[in-house]
UniProtKB/TrEMBL annotation:
Lineage of the species this protein comes from: Bacteria, Pseudomonadati, Pseudomonadota, Gammaproteobacteria, Oceanospirillales
Natural source organism: Marinobacterium mangrovicola
UniProt-recorded Gene Ontology molecular function terms: ferrous iron binding; oxidoreductase activity, acting on single donors with incorporation of molecular oxygen, incorporation of two atoms of oxygen; zinc ion binding
Keyword Chaperone annotated: no
NCBIfam families hit by this protein: PRK10628.1
Signal peptide positions on this chain: 1-24
Protein name stated in the entry: 4,5-DOPA dioxygenase extradiol
Domain Extradiol ring-cleavage dioxygenase class III enzyme subunit B residues, every copy: 57-242
Keyword list, A-Z: Dioxygenase, Metal-binding, Oxidoreductase, Signal, Zinc
Length: 293
């Protein structure tokens, strides 16, 4: 047990309880603002980071529709972990976590600053809610393509602090939804929270044409209707949709980020859709924003 504590301490994965004064300092670093929107973005291929296409154009439109945030917290399908971690890096590196793409994509850098204060605030808020370190700090990991490929199009100047929250891949769907609910106060601190994944994501079934298989279209439309209805339980229990769900969500890594966006939804939020289409048969690019009315 002692060895485990020493290892965690060396990695910066545990810390002493936050004092009231430190909590006040963290909230001062991200002062109170008007309520921020929440977004879910279907990120699709990493090539969308450098291509001028319908998807990247819609992300630019989305950014212009949103108030400028003080910081961005992204929950990406590409940071899976055992336990929940939040990135506390001052200058996160650009992670090229893919293969088989042109060199010009590997050359892309997104040098946005990190937000250690935002990460510590996430830890402090969740500790207040639960009484323990549900979320631990990570002082090493940078930004994966689920984050920077989208933000490069939305905020090309890379001048807004960005930090990520990992997905504890060993937890049930309800865990992610409930963890997101604990983070609601960040919406009042100028933080734009983005879930980045895909509602339908089956790489084994992709084909070299636009549009979607019948089962992919059906599942995407079912989730859209549940979003409109505000039926979060049906979205959490997506397996209820049988074969279409099994094919659309063969693994939940790209589906889970949406649950964080939904966990932050308020009854008064207005729902707007972007990129309502499927590509390569089995990838839904559907994105949405939940805006305070």
């Amino acid at each position: 047990m002692k060895r485990r504590q020493l290892i965690q301490g060396a990695l910066g994965l545990c810390c002493a309880p936050l004092s009231g004064s430190l909590f006040a300092q963290l909230t001062e670093a991200l002062p109170k603002t008007d309520t921020q929107p929440v977004a879910f973005i279907g990120h699709g291929s990493p090539m969308n980071a450098i291509e001028d296409n319908l998807y990247s154009q819609a992300w630019k439109t989305m950014a212009s529709d949103l108030p400028r945030p003080a910081a961005i917290l992204c929950i990406s399908a590409h940071w899976l972990s055992r336990g929940s971690f939040v990135g506390a890096v001052q200058a996160p590196e650009t992670i090229h976590d893919f293969g088989g793409f042109p060199q010009k994509l590997f050359d892309v850098q997104y040098p946005a600053p990190g937000s250690p204060e935002g990460a510590e605030l996430v830890q402090a808020i969740t500790r207040q809610k639960s009484g323990n370190d549900v979320v631990r700090l990570d002082h090493e990991r940078g930004l994966d393509h689920g984050t920077w490929s989208v933000l490069r199009q939305m905020y090309p100047d890379a001048d807004i602090p960005v930090f990520q929250l990992s997905i504890d891949y060993h937890r049930p769907m309800a865990y992610h939804y409930e963890l997101a609910q604990q983070l609601a106060a960040l919406r009042e601190r100028g933080v734009l929270i983005i879930g980045s994944g895909n509602i339908v994501h089956n790489l084994r079934a992709v084909k070299a044409v636009d549009g979607g298989y019948d089962w992919a279209v059906a599942f995407d439309e079912q989730i859209k209707q549940k979003l409109i209805d505000g039926d979060h339980q049906s979205i959490l229990n997506y397996q209820w949709y049988g074969k279409a769900a099994e094919l659309s969500v063969p693994t939940p890594d790209h589906y889970i980020p949406m649950l964080y966006s939904l966990g932050l939804q308020r009854s008064s939020d207005e729902l707007s859709f972007y990129n309502e289409s499927l590509t390569r048969g089995a990838i839904s690019m559907r994105s949405f924003v939940l805006s305070p009315s």
